[in-house]
Structures are given as structure tokens and as C-alpha cells.
Write a structure and sequence with these properties.
The protein is built from 29 helices and 27 strands. The protein is an alpha/beta fold and 905 residues long. The strands form seven sheets. Strands 3-2-6-7-1-8 form a six-stranded parallel β-sheet, with helices on both faces. Strands 11-10-9-12-13 form a five-stranded parallel β-sheet, with helices on both faces. The longest helix is centred in the last third of the chain and has 68 residues. The two termini are 74 Å apart.
Length: 905
């Protein structure tokens, strides 16, 4: 049972196999050098696949003038080459768009490490291959071992030639199949002499330099080792997927410390090879001291190095801290890394003895983390020149301020010297050094320390105004004073630098927090995008525009300044590519770097939601790893807010749909019952009159006709209620106001309800001097009638219905009460909802629209309708109507013309 496979692991393995089966395939024909027959082998296989029915297209094949290679192109479809203009010359390149439009099953694309002409979509051909694979097109290509980035320095040491075209190891790792095309060195040299590799004028130079037999043997060994490592990885994958016990351990994670940018590339390549052999994840980390970040050309070089590490498959990070060793070890522990890789120390031993060695301190303080020291020499003599020479000019102002500070301390010391011992005056100088360190930095603090000792000796210690001393004890004083000043100055400067670094981190966290806080409270798309653009401009000093997809997936400007995209379609095309590919593109990236804007996709939980196009003021600062991570965090927060707004909109739409469905179901169930009952009575009575009229006496026939008339009236009221509710909801209810007496309206409603009352007692209490009200008498009569009908339905036939009116300060109230069961507790407002029917309503029948219509009509008159239970039993419905001072009987001061007809929702 202990060997039983884990179900979750099995499911993950099946899903991974399914994803692997679905994705497009990449096959690399791999060789030790040019001329071994990679292109020839690729074309041979292309013909075999074509004969098997596969749709094969040649995207780009370079024959180098070899007749046998060119002959293999016959019978294969070849895509036309794109024309790219560069510096007045027309260059031919692979047409990526034509390949995507043609979309063959298999595309042949020679020379994977090729650098595309300036102006192409991608800088390198391997990036074209990535896009082709993403579009579902299988690709066959060729590659030489010397073009693999991690082997760059090894190949350079073997051949003495530095390759200008390389590609990341991750592209080779992505290949589904690698076929080694091998040829012994002697056979390759023979092909070279026969002119089957290069044209005759290049043969002699090639044999003297690159194509020496020793070089070819070494390159052949590199290629074989690379393929062997590939086979080893395939065997490991097979053993893992088949549940076979592992014969080796997985290497975990290692941290690579990047120091001097000039020596870092060699260290990174070596670390990449080590990570591959250990099967370990790796992170390239640079530590900069607070307040002393790399600037100018040095920072550009550092960012290039980190980008280079990222291309080789590393994760990158820039840390900040006063001690490099502490930051590296702390970061290694936080990432659960088992190894730290650093380069060999480059400082002279005497300087290490004074300032300490990072490598030695790291080895002693790493505890359970292994420390590996690799060679990290400069790759080029040009790089040995100090990079700091390109930094901004030296600033003398802080040192001048430091000198003035020491002069002020000296002046104060001279003034108070008669009352204090000389040793106490030293404290003034230490205070000055501390102020300089906190305010001006470490360099001025060191200068102030030395200058303070000299000033103290020259002006305070006898003999005065000379640098000589009368007592040798002062030499100890000077030494201690200098050391104390240096220590205090260094610590104060370091503390100030840490404070500045903490402020930077706090500003970034605060910026992200403020953005999150504002986005959480927003649910409208336009407001979310406006907040995002405002924060991008405040934090990153970048103008931006947000593009969101329409129903067809084409991006349209949704917020921001559309002028950033220019008048043409180029920037919009770059944004569309970034959206479709889910990758950053444009300015500062490897894809279409000549664009005006940086295009960053907004990625939601499962797909891209849009693109931010940014025009940064300082591109290099924005593309720094820490700033770019913060930018991505901004985009992620905005994407989540957009998703939340979309989900809220969908939820509201679903709620409205559900409510509409509920209302429709209620209407159908209610109307079907209330229509069916009177129709059944009418149908039965009418059929009886038609079939048995000769057997019915006059009284029976009259009773049948009365039933027909009553049920027809009931149907008429039902339909009238439905129509009235329709007009109310559509806002089309027309209120035709004129002066009327409530007594007349109540009388008309009672007369209309006489058939329903059937002798039931009604008590009417209306004051004799009720003022006139400006109402639509037809609509108000319907309100009174509906309330009377409601009371008749729910109260016992022997109990009276009470109608009472009274005048208040600015309104008149009419109440209709009954002695029925009353309202259910808490339903005083529910009874006015459409299609609401309580238990007694269901027994009494009705659609549940009468009271809703009443409230709509009353509110259209500017009044209120309420429901309540009577203390001694029964229900009471009362509505109020506003009084107009111009109404007759209400302190006439003006003409009592009735207001004109109006329509109110």
C-alpha cells in the first residue's frame, strides 16, 4: 500500500501529458558546427513528412550556395520573404505574419539563433519561433552548439571567437525533440576544402581560425554532452512519470550573488550550467547598499546583466541592505535555498584584511547553506576599465559644507575653551561629524572626521597653529578621536541610508496600498481606469492609455490620452500583439523595441483583460526589476478590480433576470388562476343557457346571466389592474388633476362596490367641511375601490368596513379599516409589492396587484399609502393627499384655479 501512487499526483501527471500533447512541437536539428548537414537533414525529414500527408511549408532556409541542399527545396512550398528597409538598404527576412496567416502544420525555419533586421517585430528568430508555437504551428529548425548562451564563454575559450548570436538555454529546453547531426572532424574538414560549407574565398580563413581540428573535436564533445544531458533529463522524466524509484535527488534552489556587472556574465553562465546539472531553480540577486545605488552607465550595465540572467531562466531580484552577506543569507533562508553561488574575490589581500572579504564572511555565516565560489573574471579587456568613470561629475558642495561645519565647531571650541577641558571639546567635533554623516553622507563624514582631527590639533592643542604636539599623549587622543569620528560618521551615514531605503520601500508600499484602497471601493470600469492612470503618472512618472477588447477581441481605447498611440496603426498593433500573446512588448522589451510606448498586458485570473500603453519619462528606471515588479503589481490590482466590476455587473444582470423571471412566474401563476375561474363560470353558465334554456325558468336564467355579468366584471377589473400596473412601471400614467370633493370620490367607489358588498355594513365618517383636493378623480376612485375590495375579501361578511377621513396640517388622510385577521407581523410593506399574496389573499383569490397599483397612484399624486394592524383586530389602510392653499375652503388668498394635468412616474 505504501507504493500506491498518489491520486492527486496521477491527476496532475495526466493533465500535464494532455497539455503536452496539445501544444505545438519544436524539433531542433543540432550540430557541433556549420557544415555537418543540419539543414540537409531537416529538408530530408520535411519530404518524408510531406509524403505522409503533413502540410509542410518552408519559412526560411539558407542553402549557402550548396547545390544538394537547394535541390531538396524542390517540391516544397516556400513562403515569400519579407522586405525590411534599414539605412537605405533593403534586407530580406522571414515573414512572420505570412507564416501565421498561412498556418501550416509544420514550418521549416533555419538558423534558430539568427538576429533579425532592425524594424522586425522580434529582435531574434527564436522569439519568432515562440510566437509560431503559441499559434499552434509545429516548427523544425537548426542550431549549432556554440550559439547556446550558457556555453558562450566555454566556446570562446576553445575557439578564441566570441559568438555574436546566442539564444537562451530555455529555448533548447523547450524543444520536444533534438536530433544530433554529427560528422567526424576529418570528414567536416574535407567537406570544407571541397567548398561544401563556405564559398572558396572564405575557406582559408575558416580553416586557420574556427575550423581547426582541435576546435572541432572540442565542439563535438560539447554537442554530445549537451545531447547526453538531454537524454538524461528525458530518462528522469520517464522514471518520474512511471513511478520508478529515483536514483538521484532534486537540487532545490540556489541563489547567485551578482556583484561587478563587468564580471557577472561569466558567473551567470557558469551558474546556469550548474543549475542545469543540479536540476535546481536559481535566482540572480544583486545587493546594493542603502543610499548608494548604482547610477548612470553602471546601473544600465547592472540591469542588462539581470535581463541576461532572466533570459537564461533565472528569477532576478535587487536587494537593499548595509551588509551584502546578511542580505544574501537572509534572502536564501526566505527562499528556502540550499546553495549560494558567488564569484571569486577580486580585491587584493591587503585590502581584504582591512575591509573584510564578502566570500570569507559568507562562508562563515552561511551555516546550513552551501556556498559555491565560481570563476567570475572580466570577459573582455575593455570591461576592465572602471565603470564608475561614466558616473556624474564629482560634487564638491557636500565637502564644502562639511568643512564649514568643522570650522563652526572650531569657532565654538575657541569661545568656550577657557571654561572646558580640551578633551571635552572633542565632543563638539564628534557632534559635527554626526550631523555631516546624517545630512551629507558617508564621504563628507569621513572628510569631516579627518579635518576635525587636524583642526583640533592646529587650533586647540599646544603648540597652537602648528601640527606639532608637545605631549605624545595627544597622539593617542588624535587616534581615538579619528577612529571615533570615523565610526560614528559611518554608522550615522549607514543609519541614514537605511532610513532612506526604508522610505523608498514605504513609499512603494504606500503607493500600492493607496491604489488598492481606492480600487476596492470602485465598481465602475471608467473610474477604475481613471484611478489606475492617475497613480501610474504619480508613482512612475508615465503617461498612459488603457485599451480594452471589444466583442471581437480587438483593442479599443477605454481611458487615457489616445494621442500617445500616434496617428498610425503601429502602436495599436503592438498593443494587440501584447494582448494576444500575453507578454510585454514595445519600448524597453525584446519585442518591437522601436515602439514609442511600453505595452503591458492586464492579466486577470484566467485571461488578459486589456493592455496598458505607457510613455515613461525614465525608461531605464521603470524597467529596473523592483520598479517593474511594482508596475506589474499595479496592473494586477487593476485587472482584479476590472474583473470584480465585471462580475458585479454580471451579478446585477443575473439578479434583474432572476427578479424578472420571478415576477413573470408569479404573474403567470396568478393570472392563470384568476382568469381560469371566471372564464369557467362564464363558459358553464353560457353553455347551460344555450343547451337547456327551454328547461330553465326565468329566475334561473336571470341568475345565470348575473353570474356571467359578475365574472365578466371580475375579468375586466383584473385586466384593468394589469394595464394600470403596466402604465405605472412604464411611467406613462397621466394624472389629470382638477378640484374634487373626497365625499364624491368615496361615494362613487362605494356605489361601484355595491355588488361586492352584498349588504355588508359600511360606516363612513367624513367631516362636513372637507376641503377640495386637486386629484384625478378616476384614478383616486380606483384607489378607494381597490382598498374596499381588499377589505371585502379579507374580513368576515358580518363585520363592518369603516371609511374615515380627517384633515391634518398640510394634508388630508383617508383610511379604510376592516375587522379581518389583519396583516402578518412584518408584512406591512410587503403587501405593496407586486404579486405579493398572503395566506388569506391566496384563499380569497386575486393577482396581488391591487395594493401595488394603489401605492403607485397615490405617490403619483404626491401622497403616501401605509398599512397597519388595528389594536383591536383587523387591518387599516390609509393614504394621504397634499392640500393646496389655493383650494376652495383652505384660506382662500389667491385664485383657486385647478392645476393643469400632469404626468408623474
Amino acid at each position: 500500500m505504501s507504493e500506491r501512487p498518489d491520486p492527486d499526483e496521477l491527476l496532475a501527471r495526466i493533465q500535464a501529458d494532455e497539455e503536452l500533447a496539445k501544444r505545438a512541437k519544436l524539433k531542433i536539428f543540432f550540430g557541433a558546427s556549420a557544415g555537418v548537414g543540419k539543414t540537409y537533414a531537416m529538408l530530408i525529414e520535411a519530404h518524408e513528412r510531406r509524403r505522409a500527408g503533413v502540410d509542410v511549408v518552408v519559412g526560411w532556409v539558407e542553402t549557402h550556395g550548396r547545390r544538394e541542399t537547394a535541390a531538396l527545396l524542390d517540391g516544397l512550398e516556400i513562403l515569400p520573404r519579407a522586405k525590411v528597409e534599414h539605412r537605405g538598404a533593403m534586407l530580406e527576412e522571414f515573414d512572420l505574419d505570412a507564416a501565421l496567416a498561412r498556418k501550416p502544420a509544420l514550418l521549416l525555419l533555419d538558423e534558430l539563433a539568427h538576429t533579425n533586421a532592425p524594424g522586425s517585430r522580434h529582435r531574434k528568430r527564436w522569439q519568432d519561433v515562440q510566437e509560431l508555437l503559441g499559434a499552434g504551428i509545429d516548427v523544425a529548425t537548426t542550431l549549432n552548439v556554440q550559439h547556446i548562451e550558457s556555453l558562450y564563454d566555454v566556446v570562446a575559450e576553445i575557439t578564441g571567437v566570441r559568438q555574436g548570436e546566442t539564444l537562451p538555454d530555455s529555448i533548447v529546453d523547450r524543444a520536444d525533440e533534438i536530433e544530433l547531426v554529427d560528422l567526424p572532424p576529418d570528414d567536416l574538414l574535407q567537406r570544407l576544402r571541397e567548398g561544401k560549407v563556405y564559398v572558396p574565398e572564405q575557406i582559408g580563413r575558416a580553416v586557420e581560425h574556427f575550423f581547426r581540428k582541435g576546435n572541432l573535436i572540442a565542439l563535438r564533445e560539447l554537442a554530445l554532452r549537451r545531447v547526453a544531458a538531454r537524454v538524461d533529463a528525458q530518462m528522469e522524466h520517464y522514471r518520474r512519470t512511471q513511478g520508478i524509484a529515483q536514483g538521484w535527488a532534486v537540487g532545490g534552489r540556489m541563489i547567485v550573488g551578482v556583484g561587478d556587472p563587468a564580471a557577472a556574465p561569466k558567473l551567470i553562465r557558469a551558474a546556469r550550467r550548474l543549475a542545469e546539472s543540479l536540476k535546481a531553480e536559481w535566482v540572480a540577486v544583486h545587493v546594493e547598499r542603502p543610499g548608494e545605488p548604482a547610477r548612470g552607465k553602471e546601473r544600465e550595465r547592472l540591469l542588462d546583466v539581470l535581463d541576461f540572467a532572466s533570459e537564461l531562466g533565472a528569477e532576478t531580484a535587487i536587494l537593499s541592505g548595509p551588509r551584502v552577506v546578511d542580505e544574501l543569507t537572509a534572502y536564501a533562508k526566505s527562499r528556502n535555498a540550499s546553495r549560494i553561488v558567488v564569484g571569486k574575490p577580486t580585491r587584493p589581500r591587503w585590502l581584504e584584511a582591512i575591509l573584510g572579504s564578502v566570500v570569507s564572511t559568507l562562508v562563515r555565516g552561511s551555516r546550513d547553506v552551501d556556498v559555491l565560489v565560481l570563476s567570475a573574471e572580466h570577459e573582455d579587456a575593455a570591461l576592465q576599465a572602471p565603470v564608475r568613470a561614466a558616473e556624474p561629475a564629482f560634487r564638491w558642495q557636500p565637502y564644502g559644507q562639511a568643512a564649514l561645519t568643522v570650522a563652526a565647531c572650531t569657532a565654538i571650541s575657541l569661545l568656550i575653551q577657557p571654561w572646558f577641558e580640551r578633551t571635552n571639546l572633542i565632543m563638539l567635533y564628534l557632534l559635527g561629524v554626526m550631523w555631516v554623516a546624517v545630512s551629507l553622507g558617508r564621504g563628507p563624514a569621513v572628510f569631516a572626521s579627518v579635518f576635525s582631527v587636524l583642526a583640533f590639533d592646529f587650533f586647540i592643542v599646544p603648540p597652537l597653529y602648528t601640527f606639532g604636539v608637545s605631549d605624545t599623549q595627544y597622539l593617542v587622543t588624535f587616534t581615538v578621536m579619528l577612529l571615533a569620528s570615523l565610526l560614528i560618521g559611518t554608522l550615522a551615514a549607514r543609519l541614514q541610508a537605511q532610513v532612506r531605503a526604508a522610505r523608498v520601500g514605504e513609499r512603494r508600499a504606500d503607493a500600492l496600498g493607496r491604489l488598492s484602497g481606492e480600487l476596492v471601493a470602485l465598481h465602475e470600469r471608467d473610474r477604475i481606469l481613471a484611478v489606475l492612470l492617475r497613480h501610474l503618472e504619480d508613482v512612475f512618472e508615465s503617461r498612459g492609455v488603457v485599451l480594452l477588447p471589444d466583442a471581437r477581441g480587438r483593442l479599443e481605447v477605454a481611458a487615457g490620452d489616445a494621442a500617445l498611440l500616434g496617428a498610425g496603426e503601429h502602436e495599436r498593433g503592438v498593443a494587440q500583439w501584447a494582448f494576444d500573446a500575453g507578454q510585454s512588448a514595445g519600448r524597453g522589451t525584446a519585442t518591437l523595441p522601436g515602439s514609442r510606448c511600453l505595452h503591458l498586458p492586464l492579466r486577470g485570473s484566467g485571461r488578459e483583460l486589456g493592455v496598458i500603453a505607457l510613455d515613461p519619462r525614465d525608461l531605464r528606471s521603470l524597467m529596473a526589476p523592483d520598479s517593474f515588479r511594482l508596475l506589474r503589481a499595479f496592473g494586477n490590482h487593476a485587472a482584479l478590480a476590472l474583473e470584480r466590476a465585471a462580475l458585479a455587473e454580471q451579478a446585477e444582470h443575473a439578479r434583474v433576470q432572476s427578479q424578472a423571471e420571478r415576477l413573470r412566474s408569479g404573474l403567470l401563476s396568478s393570472v392563470s388562476h384568476d382568469l381560469r375561474t371566471p372564464l369557467a363560470v362564464i363558459t358553464g353558465a353560457a353553455s347551460t343557457l344555450l343547451e337547456d334554456d327551454d328547461r330553465l325558468d326565468a329566475a334561473a336564467q336571470r341568475e345565470m346571466l348575473r353570474s356571467i355579468a359578475d365574472e365578466a366584471g371580475r375579468l375586466n377589473r383584473l385586466i384593468a389592474n394589469l394595464l394600470a400596473m403596466t402604465r405605472l412601471e412604464a411611467g406613462a400614467l397621466e394624472v389629470k388633476r382638477s378640484w374634487h370633493s373626497l365625499e364624491e370620490v368615496v361615494g362613487a367607489a362605494l356605489h361601484r362596490a355595491e355588488p361586492l358588498l352584498a349588504g355588508r355594513p359600511v360606516r363612513v365618517s367624513l367631516p362636513a367641511e372637507l376641503p377640495l383636493v386637486a386629484v384625478d378623480d378616476v384614478l383616486l376612485e380606483q384607489v378607494v375601490f381597490n382598498l374596499l375590495e381588499n377589505a371585502i375579501k379579507h374580513a368576515p361578511s358580518s363585520t363592518p368596513i369603516e371609511v374615515e377621513a380627517r384633515v391634518r396640517e398640510h394634508e388630508v388622510e383617508l383610511a379604510i379599516a376592516d375587522r379581518g385577521p389583519g396583516l402578518a407581523p412584518g408584512s406591512e410593506e410587503q403587501v405593496f409589492e407586486k404579486f405579493y399574496r398572503g395566506d388569506s389573499s391566496r384563499r380569497a383569490g386575486g393577482v396581488g396587484l391591487g395594493l401595488a397599483i394603489c401605492r403607485g397612484i397615490v405617490e403619483a399624486h404626491g401622497g403616501r399609502l401605509r398599512a397597519a394592524n388595528r389594536p383591536d383586530g383587523g387591518a387599516l389602510f390609509a393614504f394621504t393627499l397634499p392640500l393646496d392653499r389655493r383650494a376652495p375652503g383652505v384660506e382662500l388668498e389667491e385664485s383657486a384655479e385647478p392645476p393643469h394635468a400632469e404626468t408623474r412616474p
